[in-house]
Amino acid sequence: MLKKLTEEQRNMILTCAIEEFGEQGYGRAKITSIARSAGLSAGVIYKYYEDKEALFNACLEHCMDYLEDVYTRLGSTTIGLEDGLERLVELAVIASREHPEYFRLYHQITLTQNSEEAVKLSSRIEGSSSKLYVSFLEDGVRAGLVREDMDPKFFALLFDDILMMINFSLSSKYYEERMRLYLGHDPSDAELKEQILKFVRGAFGMGE
Predict the structure, then answer these.
(1) Nearest-CA neighbor of 164 among 93, 71, 108?
(2) Cβ atoms within 10 Å, residue 88
(3) Phi then psi dihedrals of residue 42, to 5 deg
(4) Is 27 exposed, middle or buried (0-12, 13-18, 19+ CB in 10 A)?
(5) What is d(CA 167, CA 185) in angstroms, rounded to the nearest whole number?
(6) 114: helix, coil or strand?
(7) pTM of the model as a whole
(8) Contact, 73 vs 47, CB < 8 A?
(9) In this predicted model, what pLDDT tens digit does every residue of 112-167 receive, in sequence order?
C-alpha cells in the first residue's frame, strides 16, 4: 500500500522538479535526480506521477497557478494606469526574487521546438498577462493618459517583453551577467524599478 505523502513532501517534489527542469531542460532532466534532491525514492515519485511528462505538467501547473493568482489579484482591484504599471514592474521583480526557479523553467519552455506544444504552452502561459496588459493600455488610450498614435496591443507586447527580461535577468546567470555588462554594476531592485518605469512612461507618452 502506498504511504500517503505529506503536503510538505509533495511540495518538495515539485520544488526539486522545477529546479531540475529549469536547470537541465526537459530532455536532460532525470527523475532519479529529482528524487535524490527531494530525499525520496524514484519509485515513490512514479507512483504519484505516471512519467516525466506528467511531473513536468504538474510543475507547469504549479508555476502557472502562482502567476495567475498574482494577475488575478491585480486585475480584480480598481487601479489606474500609472499605479498599475508601477505595480506590475514591482511584481515582476518580487516574483523573480521569490521564485527564480519558476522563471528558469519558463526560459526552458520558450526553447521548445515542437510547434504544436509551443502553441499550447504559449496560450497557457501568456493568456492571463496579455489580456491584462492590453486592457490597461486600451483604458489608458481612451482616458487620454497615453499617446494617441500607439497600438495598445503592440505596446502591451513590448511591455511584456520588458517584464520578461526582468524575470530572466534576476533568475538566469547569463542574463544577470548581460545586465551587468550593460550597466557596469548590479542594480538594486529600487533602481531597476525606477529606470524601467522611466523608460515605459517615456515610450507611452505619459506625462507629456
Answers:
(1) 93
(2) 25
(3) -60, -35
(4) exposed
(5) 18
(6) coil
(7) 0.82
(8) no
(9) 767 777 777 788 778 778 888 898 889 888 988 899 898 999 999 999 999 999 99
